[in-house]
Amino acid sequence: MKRFILLCLCVLPITLFAQQQIYGSWVGKMKSSQGNYVFTLDLVPNAKDGHGYVKGVAVHNRNGINEVIELTGVLYADNSIYLFDDGDISQQVKDGQGFSRLQFLFKFDGSDPVLDGHWQEYHDFRRYRKGRLVLKKTKRKAGV
């Protein structure tokens, strides 16, 4: 029992450290059947919803047009993140806007933090496009 408690005490700080590393700015490529796009993602804690919830803003440049997506999500203890559009998805589908879903696993490539994941853009509740995302943490300058 003492070994179990000691193991928990050692693993908990590592998990909390990794979760704190998730917040900030990320940039990388989104690969889909439609092409490759630059994709940025900014993540912050969502204190309003409690521990483990995140807010995000994603921007990708598709054929010269910047598309901005406001996201809400859940950060799980295994350092996976599930993000979804803010707002009422039923209304978005009725309005012809569709909605997005993103799933990431936070990991390290050597000493560099990486979000490795997938993206789906639903046109309705059945048809969707999908893509692959690999994002690296970046430091952004204020006002950029």
Features:
eight-stranded antiparallel beta barrel; 144 residues; alpha+beta; 19% helix
Structure overview:
By secondary structure, the chain is α+β, with helices and mostly antiparallel strands. Helices cover 19% and strands 56% of the residues. It is built from 2 helices and 8 strands; from the N terminus they run αβββββαβββ. The chain is globular and about 55 Å long.
Task: Give the arrangement of secondary structure elements.
Layout: H1 2-22, E1 24-32, E2 35-45, E3 53-62, E4 65-75, E5 80-85, H2 89-94, E6 99-109, E7 112-122, E8 128-138
Antiparallel strand pairs: 1-2, 1-8, 2-3, 3-4, 4-5, 5-6, 6-7, 7-8
In helices, the fraction of residues equals 10-25%
CA radius of gyration is 17 Å
**What's the SSE pattern?**
HEEEEEHEEE
Shape: globular
Mean pLDDT: 80
Number of strands: 8
- Counting DSSP H or I runs of 4 or more residues, the number of helices is 2
**Measured distance between first and last alpha carbons:** 51 Å
Oligomer: single chain
Structural class assignment: alpha+beta
Residue runs with pLDDT of under 50 for 5 or more positions: 7-18
Percent strand: over 45%
